[in-house]
Amino acid sequence: MLLQPNDQWCWFVGADRHLMLDLGEDMLFATPYLQHKLICAGDLRQNFSVEDTGLYYTFLDKLSCVATPSRRIQAALNGVAVARFYKPLMPQSWFFEPQADYHQPQLGELIGLDCGERHLTMMVVETSPSASLCISLSADVVLSESKKLPVFGAIKVMNDRLFSLEADMQVQEMRRVG
């Protein structure tokens, strides 16, 4: 069952200082994002907007390959939260290997980042010609002694570090068929 946005949905900051989404009918969605990383006041009360709804459905569509509906919804709502409320970030590309082919991602696209010992799966929540803001769909990873990227953690990277997972998935699908 996928959640359908409605006019009762409302963003707010919870008592524990995390961004929350009231889904009505006594349901709450807690994001992992603390208020000090967001552009919003502690007394925030904002309805889930038409733009939020558009982002939510864009992200859900791009996440169709994610195994469970609940995980897709969780990733989509966290993506909307980051796109709407996260403070601007400077790129932190040095954690990831440059790619031979420059890739200009689309909003919601699933992309990969190579951090040496493993590849991370990310979703693009904001894009520009040079850099993209992404959330991690991979398990927690330690990038350095002082930097850990948790699942749904936000990071901005230069587009020359990204590689398309959609192209990878298409090649794998062609191999299965042929």
Automatic annotation (TrEMBL):
Keyword terms of this UniProt record: Cell cycle, Cell division, Cytoplasm, Septation
Domain Cell-division protein ZapC C-terminal: 88-167
Any GO BP: division septum assembly
Localization terms from the record: Cytoplasm
A Pfam family hit: ZapC_C
InterPro entries according to UniProt: ZapC, ZapC_C, ZapC_N
Domain Cell-division protein ZapC N-terminal residue range list: 3-87
GO CC field: cytoplasm
Protein function: Contributes to the efficiency of the cell division process by stabilizing the polymeric form of the cell division protein FtsZ. Acts by promoting interactions between FtsZ protofilaments and suppressing the GTPase activity of FtsZ.
Family to which this protein belongs: Belongs to the ZapC family.
Name the record gives this protein: Cell division protein ZapC
The organism of origin for this protein: Oceanimonas pelagia
